[in-house]
Design brief:
six-stranded antiparallel sheet; 162 residues; Beta-Lactamase; alpha+beta; binds methionine sulfoxide; globular
């Protein structure tokens, strides 16, 4: 069971992200290849974080988002900028946390079991948007500032070179 600190911080989730980040640094230290990085990040996080039902990248291609490496049930293939949670993040490059996807106007339901979601922008070394990383849970209200902090750090480390 997750233990709660007085501040409400979920220490177990934090520990799982910390461990996952360390595993990824060790696994990916010898590669600069973005595809290798994306499939490995997706596999490690989906396997290690119990709240993850679907996790994956949508890539900026041909002026829209196109499906990239993911783990989970069938994802939508194409998302226009500005559409759904992913398209909104791609448009303004700001992370979104959605506690209940049914309350989000314009949410795109690739799988009706998805209940809550976090999407973070993925920037390249030139500061350009190259992708978004989308995580869905089949439970309500599964994502918070800890997910945001670690996912933004992981993406910045492996794709922006921070
Ligand atoms: N729910 C997302 C679409 C992607 S799938 O959930 C995998 C959205 O509204 O952008």
């Amino acid at each position: 069971m997750p233990r709660e600190l007085p501040t409400g911080i979920d220490v177990d989730k934090q520990a799982l992200y910390e461990q996952s980040f360390n595993e990824l640094k060790a696994l990916l230290e010898d590669t600069q290849d973005n595809l290798t990085r994306m499939v490995t990040i997706t596999a490690i996080l989906k396997h290690n974080l119990p709240s993850y039902f679907w996790a994956g990248f949508y890539l900026v291609k041909r002026g829209r988002l196109e499906i990239g490496p993911y783990q989970g049930t069938l994802g939508c293939l194409y998302i226009d900028f500005g559409r759904g949670v992913c398209g909104a993040v791609a448009a303004d490059k700001k992370t979104r946390i959605v506690a209940d996807v049914h309350q989000y106007d314009g949410h795109i339901a690739c799988d009706s079991r998805s209940q809550s979601e976090i999407v973070v922008p993925v920037m390249d070394r030139c500061g350009e948007l190259m992708a978004v990383f989308d995580v869905d849970s089949d439970q309500l209200d599964q994502f918070d500032a800890i997910d945001q902090q670690y996912l933004e750090r992981i993406m910045a480390h492996f794709f922006a070179g921070d």
